[in-house]
Design goal:
The chain is an all-beta fold and 71 residues long. The chain has strands at 3-6, 11-16, 23-24, 29-35, 38-43, 48-53, 60-61, 66-70.
Length: 71
């Protein structure tokens, strides 16, 4: 089952910790978003394989934008 990872808030992508094809475990760091001058890690909600990464470093994202897909 595909799990869409959405940005919890608007901000800028500071770092991406995974690549397409990587196997991740629940609570692994996926990306770091800067919002309101704070760094906010986004973690994997499930175990799985990264199928899509829809952002790049320095991209601006809006709340609820799909940033990654895990299968």
């Amino acid at each position: 089952m595909l799990q869409k990872i959405k940005a919890p808030m608007s901000g800028k992508i500071l770092q991406i910790f995974t690549n397409v094809g990587d196997v991740v475990s629940e609570d692994d760091y996926l990306v770091m978003i800067e919002a309101m001058k704070m760094e906010n890690p986004i973690t994997a909600p499930v175990d799985g394989t990264v199928k899509e990464i829809n952002v790049k470093v320095n991209d601006k994202v809006e709340a609820d934008e799909v940033i990654m897909v895990i299968e």
